[in-house]
Amino acid sequence: MARQARLSDLVRATASLVDCVAGLSREGLPSPLRFTPDGERAADAVAEPASADLGGSLGKVWLERSGPPGPLDDLVLERFAMAARVLGHAEPGGGAPQLADPALVELLLGEQAAEEDRARALRLLGLDAGRPVRVVAVGTEDERDPGVAAVGLLARGGSLPRLHVAVVGEVAAVLMQPRDDSVVAALRSALADRARERDTAGGVRVGVGDAVPGLEVRRSWLQARLAERFAVPAVEPVVVHGELGSLTLLAEVPVTRLREQDDVRALDALAATPTGAADVAALEAFCRTGSLRQAAVALHRHHSSVAARLAHVEDALSWRLDEPGDRFRARLALLARRLAQRG
């Protein structure tokens, strides 16, 4: 992708990797692309190939094996579809994520550049300085490359506008110029689809900043970074800065003070026990959703299992989660712990 490969190159490379015919069809292509492992155009097709959709009505990719599927075919198909959405040159002016020049993105998001340098960076990225820009921050909890995670997530959002993705530190920055407020809904839908497919949201956290004038994009970036610190995979993976309200004040507390707070230390101690991490996850799901059954749905667990874990939390921390005061205390401690972990 970094070398601006064509869709035909992608199909050839996939066929060579899996040692079978690979194919791709999408909106804008006059006919499907099908290549053999040696890079030649394929002839007869397999009756029912394993396939993956590109999202909406955009098209699909597939692998054609005459025998049983290979052990990595599902993973290859997922990456194949992701790369096809990103490359997407067959769809002029499409909204596929573009791998942006990190230097330009860092210049825009930094605090040192002069206004004329920011304006030039906007132009070079293909962004309109006269229209609002919104920044989305994408982080991961499983040490995966946040840039890869961002592209994989955003490639699912067929209705998203043209995007520019670059990794800044440990978080991927996504710059976009949406024409409406559908971005948040598209992101939440993409993560929900991912969760249904994998029984998990994959450890992805997303923070969404406000839409701001192009030359003030750093403000949206800082908001997105802050919102990403509040996000919880599977339970509340997408957090919008504008919806946090007074909770943003908690982020002004120094990280060292948050870590040393007694309730935060108690949660850390519980999480360090053999079953404690699952207990804390159940508590977080319960506090975020406000319902035992909704927490169970978010965690893909039976509600009785979640109830047992919450009972263990109550015994360990001397909290009573049916009491409003203790629920608020637990929620506040969980938020403080999240912010301390990502400070």
Using the coordinates above, name the CATH class of the largest domain. Answer: Alpha Beta
Q: Which value, in Å, is the CA radius of gyration?
A: 23 Å
Strand order of the largest sheet: 5-7-8-6-9-10
Q: Segments where pLDDT lies below 50 for 5+ residues?
A: 89-97
* pLDDT averaged residue by residue: 83
Give the domain tally. Answer: 3
Distance between the termini: 32 Å
Tell me the strand percentage band. Answer: 5-15%
* Class of secondary structure makeup: alpha+beta
Number of E-state strands: 10
SSE topology:
Layout: H1 7-18, E1 21-26, E2 33-35, E3 50-53, E4 59-64, H2 73-87, E5 97-99, H3 102-109, H4 115-124, E6 134-140, H5 146-154, E7 163-168, E8 171-176, H6 182-198, E9 204-208, H7 217-230, E10 238-240, H8 255-260, H9 262-271, H10 276-289, H11 292-299, H12 303-317, H13 324-341
Parallel strand pairs: 5-7, 9-10
Antiparallel strand pairs: 1-2, 1-4, 3-4, 6-8, 6-9, 7-8
Helix pairs in contact: 1-2, 3-4, 9-10, 9-13, 10-11, 10-12, 10-13, 11-12
